[in-house]
Amino acid sequence: MNIRDNKEEIKVQATQIKPIRPTEIEFQSLDDLKKFVQYATSTEKTYTDILERVRKEQKAHIRTPRRK
Prior knowledge:
- The chain has 68 residues and is of the alpha+beta class.
- It has a domain at 28-68.
- The chain has helices at 30-41, 49-60, and strands at residues 2-4, 9-11.
- It has a two-stranded antiparallel sheet with strand order 1-2.
- β1 and β2 (9-11) form a beta hairpin.
- The chain is flat, with a radius of gyration of 22 Å.
- It starts with a strand and ends in an 8-residue tail after the last helix.
- The model has no long low-confidence stretch (mean pLDDT 80).
């Protein structure tokens, strides 16, 4: 793969990317389909003790400065 800058062309080793394949889901009823769509499109956070702990630890995490 080549990346072209305004002044020069840079050759870059391209990593092969796996394609995203479609997923097929079968529902037992129309109600299950509606529940899935509601869950998949909702912006509501999932609240469990473990996820709350992870969120709290991520919020409190301080990155160490990079060494030079």
